[in-house]
Design the sequence.
């Protein structure tokens, strides 16, 4: 059992921190523009596909640097020439715009890269087990993912709280007019933040592509969960996003590892049902089976008991 | 102003209904003509997360129609086959909508394969439609959905299956596993829906019969298409000390699962149904060599006849980026055409009667049999390994492909059926 616990924790951390890279961009963009970017996970997918194509010609490492940059520029362009124009028509229009954009990107990816799974592999340099514990290998690539994600969090946090740029961004989030009156170019700040946010999503895609497989449905699989994290963490809160990401990563990982479910619960209560019982599916349900649904359950609970999210400050 | 508008709208509605009726009567007249193409529906996911499987099936069917029949003067004395794609996004709800569309367009034959849940929904819709609209029946040709229920409890006169069902395949697969004395501890993992459950229950039952000494150390379900990372599941597989895995996963769930197993350094055989083609072989090929095995029909390597080799080569010339992923589509189409030629028409009732107990020789030279009592096909089954040795026809242009290791002739795959078919009267 200890090996399961150790690896469940490691896996949870890897997934959680990967989710954080997506959620951090989304939550900052939300707090700035007041709108959820439905296309955020699509930029994650674009990152993976760009990196795949670049890696075919220049190798993995070039892709790691170039792909997020391309995605970031693309994101900035979308903000500058798309979202900003739609912005005048209110939040609903923006929401619909990003929603449509998500579909557009998915179709574009299928158009250019096809519908098959892409053979996007981890670089040879990291293709070795970092350590072997209880007979199971922890690949160096996963260690690399972990390092990058932690690095991004620390860097982001430092920039936002310590640097001048970060202070202006924070000010622009809460008091955009004041910041504009002080002579700062608020629209430019918005574009830059949107670009950086999407670049982070792209980076997440680049490093996740080889392990979580690169296919046209990858945005869909991750998309909904990122919104859950942002809402649970509290809209606009970076530490909240981190806590929620880790919480969900670990929750899922532990739930899968746990060998408990309804049968154990019933046994504890001294109840027993025959196999022919109409609710047999319910009585035989175990935790692992519903693990991927747990975040949504958590979302409902958080919305009921703490509608602002764990660390959210905004009351609307 | 408002009145005027609504008046105009009502007028245009009348006009459009009138036009539709006019068009319908014209097309009814046209249908009587012999040069009209034979239109066949192909309903499978052509967009969304499972699009790659549906699209590759469509490509194979379209190619087979052109290559085998249209380029040789058509069927029924010069009529062309036209394949009409219907995108059901692999959702039972969307399937109902597309089925309505197919009925509206006058399609009478529908190919469908992916997802047993969808096949069941379509089966119900077709059966109901045919009962209510005598003379306007629809024929469902299932080329890939392998939940046994479709030819057992829910068997229908209007449904034909051109693939071995899951229990038949598992029977072959477990025979093969039982011969391997090294396997002592088996882990079963699958998607949480009808087919995944059939695989789990049947493998457990068959292994217990054939090799009581094999311990089932895990029997796990995960939601279909929802899992981002399979590593937590693999941790459990490692902890269970399993020395082999059985899975019915397909698409991205298959790739991610195998990827995670390989990445964790677990060197055990993986027995699957669908771990090849559509990018899967390219992604897993080198790491999955001699580890991933599939149970399937129609040997991919070696191919026994020159005829089928030529079919593959010409397909590859026309679609360099694709593979003949499901050769049984060509078989199903050829059997359908044979039934059409025999009956001299395209009436689904007559076609169904002609297909019953049809014996047909495929491009590979195998004789297949469509059982009349439950509309289940019987053909040779193969267990193949993923490798790059002895591969003449690879998958995904990767150099890797499937090589037959074990083969069971059609007559040995025959199983009893519990089907009590309600046969329509005419």
Sequence:
């Amino acid at each position: 059992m200890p090996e399961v616990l150790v690896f469940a924790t490691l896996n949870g951390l890897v997934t959680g921190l990967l989710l954080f890279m997506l959620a951090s961009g989304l939550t900052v963009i939300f707090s700035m523009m007041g709108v959820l970017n439905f296309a955020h996970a699509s930029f994650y997918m674009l990152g993976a596909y760009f990196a795949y194509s670049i890696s075919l010609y220049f190798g993995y490492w070039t892709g790691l640097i170039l792909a997020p940059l391309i995605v970031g520029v693309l994101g900035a362009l979308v903000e500058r020439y798309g979202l900003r124009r739609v912005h005048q028509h209110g939040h609903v229009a923006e929401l619909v715009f990003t929603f449509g954009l998500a579909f557009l990107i998915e179709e574009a990816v299928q158009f250019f890269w096809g519908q098959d799974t892409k053979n996007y592999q981890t670089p040879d340099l990291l293709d070795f087990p970092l350590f072997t514990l209880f007979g199971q290998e922890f690949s160096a690539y996963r260690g690399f993912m972990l390092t990058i994600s932690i690095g991004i969090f620390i860097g982001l946090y430092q920039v936002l709280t310590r640097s001048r740029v970060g202070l202006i961004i924070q000010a622009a989030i809460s008091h955009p007019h004041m910041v504009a009156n002080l002579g700062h170019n608020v629209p430019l700040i918005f574009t830059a933040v949107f670009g950086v946010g999407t670049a982070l999503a792209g980076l997440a895609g680049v490093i996740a592509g080889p392990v979580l497989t690169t296919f046209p449905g990858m945005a869909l699989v991750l998309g909904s969960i990122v919104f859950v994290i942002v809402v649970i963490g509290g809209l606009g809160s970076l530490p909240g996003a981190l806590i929620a990401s880790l919480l969900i990563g670990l929750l899922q990982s532990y739930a899968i590892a746990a060998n408990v479910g309804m049968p154990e619960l019933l046994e504890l209560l001294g109840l027993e049902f025959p196999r022919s019982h109409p609710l047999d599916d319910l009585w035989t349900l175990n935790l692992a089976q519903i693990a991927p649904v747990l975040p949504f359950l958590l979302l409902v609970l958080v919305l009921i008991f703490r509608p602002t999210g764990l660390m959210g400050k905004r009351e609307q | 102003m408002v009145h005027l508008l609504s008046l105009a709208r009502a007028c245009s509605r009348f006009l459009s209904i009138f036009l539709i009726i006019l068009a319908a009567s014209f097309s009814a007249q046209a249908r009587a003509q012999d040069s009209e193409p034979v239109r066949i529906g192909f309903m499978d996911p052509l967009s969304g997360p499972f699009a790659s499987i549906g699209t590759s099936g469509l490509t194979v069917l379209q190619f087979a129609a052109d290559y085998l029949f249209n380029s040789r003067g058509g069927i029924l004395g010069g009529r062309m086959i036209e394949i009409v794609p219907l995108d059901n996004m692999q959702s039972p709800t969307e399937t109902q909508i597309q089925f309505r569309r197919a009925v509206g367009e006058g399609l009478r034959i529908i190919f469908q394969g992916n997802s047993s849940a969808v096949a069941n929904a379509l089966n119900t819709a077709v059966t109901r439609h045919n009962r209510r609209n005598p003379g306007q029946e629809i024929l469902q040709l299932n080329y890939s959905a392998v939940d046994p229920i479709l030819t057992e409890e829910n068997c229908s006169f209007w449904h034909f299956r051109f693939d071995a069902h899951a229990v038949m395949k598992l029977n072959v697969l477990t025979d093969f596993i039982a011969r391997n004395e090294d396997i002592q501890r088996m882990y079963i993992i699958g998607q949480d829906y009808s087919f995944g459950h059939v695989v789990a229950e049947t493998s457990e039952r068959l292994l217990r019969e054939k090799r009581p000494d094999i311990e089932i150390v895990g029997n796990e379900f995960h939601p279909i298409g929802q899992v981002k990372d399979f590593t937590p599941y693999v941790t459990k597989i490692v902890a269970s000390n399993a020395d082999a895995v059985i899975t019915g996963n397909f698409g991205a769930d298959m790739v991610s699962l195998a990827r995670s197993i390989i990445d964790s350094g677990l060197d055990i055989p993986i027995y699957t149904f669908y771990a090849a083609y559509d990018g899967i072989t390219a992604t897993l090929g080198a790491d999955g060599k001699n580890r991933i095995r599939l149970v399937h029909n129609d040997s991919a390597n070696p191919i026994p006849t020159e005829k089928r080799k030529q079919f593959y080569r010409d397909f590859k010339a026309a679609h360099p980026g694709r593979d003949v992923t499901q050769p049984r589509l060509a078989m199903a189409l050829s059997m359908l055409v044979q039934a059409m030629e025999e009956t001299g028409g395209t009436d689904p009732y007559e076609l169904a009667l002609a297909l019953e107990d049809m014996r047909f020789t495929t491009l590979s030279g195998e004789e297949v049999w469509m059982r009349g009592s439950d509309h289940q096909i019987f053909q040779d089954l193969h267990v193949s390994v993923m490798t790059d040795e002895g591969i003449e026809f690879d998958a995904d242009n990767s150099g890797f492909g499937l090589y037959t290791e074990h083969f069971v002739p059609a007559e040995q795959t025959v199983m009893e059926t519990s089907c009590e078919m309600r046969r329509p009267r005419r």
Remarks:
- Chain A touches chain B through 50 residues (CB under 8 Å).
